[in-house]
């Protein structure tokens, strides 16, 4: 992709200057009717290359070049270089900026593109898929990254990589808590990262997430998922809501509740998003099973989603009992963005 932003330019002269390059490439031109909104043309070459040339009324000229696997990359680079030089020559005094973007690979066997929580597209250095299965609840992928190790991706959301110890540390209190001899309830956490760090736990997770992570995320979970019951922990593969309600009825409480089920929803309209209702339910039940001196840890979302995080903090003020909270911003390596974590306790 090549784009140029300029102030005042003679559009026909610019287009004509670029057309000569495409003619030299023996590309067939088709001009499209834009109904007065700038200029749009496509050029198709014999080798399957496709070029889309667009000039907007606002002064933005874009060139998108698509080619197929097996095309001569050197020729493609030379064509882009020629177009960039021509643009600079044609727009010399009026040009503001010329920007060339890296190529996007579509339809590859391994998908390297995953969005951040705040909507930016990130290209990972993923080179292979090591696990890809559908459970009754979600699609589960584990993909290998040269930088981050194996990455767990659930329904298209990057959850945790083997490099992401900062995430686990943040959602457990950044090393400031003493878990020895304490009762800890983890909600979610199917990757086993939190379980590997804590002491006495009860956990509710997707069995297929356990199966995949047990084999392919051992740098994160160690050996704790090899058995669902150990000397000081038990993993329950069940729906957490009825179990939490049962604990409330029985009066069972915990020193710590760590909610690793889901991030705060991106939507800022709780009445239109059932995830907010689920989050509120989990929050309320979790606080009810928390001991008076206990703490509730959870992730928030991207630090850039300020409206979403503010809405979540409002929800904390609507629980069945009053609470205080603190928050911390942490860089999680594989997320490639800053992430907010919350600590909540009863007043």
UniProtKB/TrEMBL annotation:
| Pfam families in the record | Spermine_synt_N, Spermine_synth, SpmSyn_N
Q: Which domain of life is it from?
A: Eukaryota
- Active-site residues are 260
| Gene3D superfamilies for this protein | Siroheme synthase, domain 2, Spermidine synthase, tetramerisation domain, Vaccinia Virus protein VP39
Q: Which GO terms describe its molecular function?
A: spermine synthase activity
Q: Name one GO biological process term.
A: spermine biosynthetic process
Q: Which residues form the PABS domain?
A: 112-346
Question: Keywords on this record?
Answer: Polyamine biosynthesis, Transferase
Q: Which InterPro entries match?
A: PABS, PABS_CS, SAM-dependent_MTases_sf, Spermidine_synt_N, Spermidine_synt_N_sf, Spermine_synthase_animal, SpmSyn_N
Family, similarity comment: Belongs to the spermidine/spermine synthase family.
Put simply, this protein is called Spermine synthase
UniProt source species: Oncorhynchus kisutch
The major lineage groups are: Eukaryota, Metazoa, Chordata, Craniata, Vertebrata
